Amino acid sequence: MLCSSKKQGMERLIVVCLCVSLLSIFALADPGAVGVNYGRIANDLPSAVKTVELLKSQGIDKVKIYDTDSAVLKALSGSNIKVIVSLPNENLTAAAKYPSFALSWVQKSIVPYYPLTQIHAIAVGNEVFVDPNNTTDVLVPAMKNVQSALVYYKLDSGIKISSPFALSALQSSFPASSGSFKTELIEPVIKPMFDFLRETKSYLMLNAYPFFAYSANADVISLDYALFRENPGVVDSGNGLKYTNLFDAQVDAIYAAIKALKYDDVDIVVTETGWPSNGDKEEIGANPENAQAYNGNLVKRVLTGGGTPLKAETKLVVYLFALYNENKKFGPTSERNYGLFYPSEEKVYEIPFTLEQVKTWKLKPASDRKAQSQAPTKPVYGGESAGSNGTSGVPSSSSAKGPFCVANVKSGKERLQKALDYACGEGGADCRSIQRGAACYDPNTLGAHATIAFNSYFQNKGRANSACYFGGAAYVVTVPPKLGKCDLTMDSEEDNGNKGAGKLFVQNNKENAEAVDVSLSSPRLVTLFGTGTFGISWVLLVLMYLSF
Question: Which stretches does UniProt call biased (Low complexity) (predicted)?
Fold first, then answer.
């Protein structure tokens, strides 16, 4: 009897310990917050009123929209859902040059709805550094004028101003502790912006997508590392911190870059992150199982408390991209399949949105985990056998002269412009060479600029035929067109060191040519936060760590 009693007492003690452990996870940790992006580039979405009902039914109390649509803001009135609204890139120049424009915009877009609609932040522009219309120089002046308008209407205490960065703003990113911003951006825009954020007690908005890093490097990045599943982790050689997921490493690379400029007091809100549930065959990892694992595990990681390894005491605030699948978005199939819900309001897959839901949520086992682990280990290049030159799937020099992706001018100005905006923005093409005053600005025609952008996107995507469509605005050719001083010829020798990369050559005179790298820089499609040798080093080090 005595032995039995002791045994039962020990069992009760174990149960109590387990309960205490669970409470420490769900109650004692400082939880972060989760919201969603409500994009509307589609023709089959529910009304704004029904969308707000959907948000409330799921316990989602934070939403970000990409404009200040009246119907949406009215529907959100009285809902207790906090809202981030946006001033689009096309309005930045006017907002920067004319304080009266900013004042009028706030008067019409904010004042009529606030505070019944709980607008708490304004995203001024989006990923401006890769905007094909070259709005970088007007970003901070636009932010300041919008802030002045808020002050005028006495709204500045309740509404913060910021602007979403993409990872392409980084010069260096591996290890995360060595993160640094591109030198050409620091003095003209980044420091003035951070001064503004500090002065107004605001924060930096960040768009981060581990999916693109994994999809472009599935042969060296562990899927478990990308999806917050159990894995050996990666140790930062700069500070000894251990990273068990790619998301934390991406965020900390930005934090390190901020710290390097001595703006440690500026925090980050992740305004976009997500994983597509479907994609083209070249988009490795785009499926419902991985999307559920990434988004569900991210929500669990955020809501159960704790920050990143570099900022452990700072809670995470994350906005998932996106609420719905959007059938009118440009780009590859994945762009139309980031939604958590179908337009019918049916869930694409099950994930939690609140801490209570996290406690009972279980990740649905992948229908074929073995099949996932046997995904192509090297990206497939159109018309090429992967790895034919012994460089891990990089196209061989025999094919380095093509094919190329060019603009279809017959598709019409409007379609071309939309496709160009997508390529230079979300698509990740390097459009610096077609900015005003840059090497390939001339010929200053929509067709020429679109061709350079489309081809950059095409090369980054491994020359897959599906990457040269843009809704009929582009097509593949084997002979590159002449574009003034620029041509699309690839440097076969130097190109072998970069996956899917190309060199755009600017002909200065008959004897000399200057190579402009258009290979790996992008807003979302950053292979491993960095480009060139930084990106390659990151890949090799990840492979080394994950092999142990």
Answer: 387-400
DSSP 336: G
Chain-centroid distance, C-alpha 483: 31
Residue-wise over 162-188: b if at least 16 C-beta within 10 A, else e? bbbbbbbbbbbbbbbbbbbbbeebbee
CB-CB neighbours of 242 under 10 Å: 12
Residues involved in catalysis: 127, 272
Residue 285 or 510, more confident: 285
Ranges 74-88, 214-228, 531-545: which has the least confidence: 531-545
Angle at 407 between CA 402 and CA 412, to 5 degrees: 165
Cα-based torsion angle of the residue sequence 372, 378, 380, 385 in order, rounded to the nearest 10 degrees: -130
Helix (H, G, I), strand (E, B) or coil at 242: strand
Q: Which residue, among 537, 536, 544, has the nearest Cα to 520 in the 3D structure?
A: 536
Of 95, 100, 63, the C-alpha closest to 79 is 63
pLDDT at 489: 65
- Residue 317: strand pairing partners: 33
Residue 16 phi/psi, 5-degree rounding, is -60, -45
Whole-number pLDDT of residue 412: 84
pLDDT digits (tens, 9 = 90+) for 127-156: 998 776 778 999 999 999 999 999 999 999
Can you tell me whether residue 137 is helix, strand or coil? helix
Average pLDDT over residues 531-538: 40
Is 60 exceeded by the pLDDT of residue 237? yes
Q: CA 319 to CA 66: how far, in whole Å?
A: 13
Side chain identity at 268, as an amino acid letter? I
Token readout for 198 is: 């500090």
198-204 mean pLDDT = 98
Positive or negative: CA dihedral 432, 501, 492, 455: negative
Digit-coded pLDDT (tens) for 41-53:
999 999 999 999 9
The Cα 313–Cα 307 span in angstroms is 6
Residue 82 phi, psi dihedral angles, 5° rounding? -75, 140
CA-to-CA distance for 288 and 347, rounded, in angstroms?
11
Q: Which position has the token pair 């174990």? A: 14
Among 310-319, 458-467, 518-527, which stretch is predicted with the lowest mean pLDDT? 518-527
Give the three-class secondary structure for 263: coil
CB contact at 8 A, 235 and 242: yes
* Residues counted in the chain: 548
Sign of dihedral through CA atoms 65, 470, 45, 358?
negative
Helix axes 413-424, 446-460, angle to 10 degrees: 40
Per residue, what are the HEC states of 460-529?
Answer: HCCCCHHHCCHHHCEEEECCCCCECCEECCCCHHHHCCCCCCCEEEEECCCCCEEEEECCCCCCCCCCEC
Amino acid 425: pLDDT? 80
User: At 44, which amino acid appears?
Assistant: D
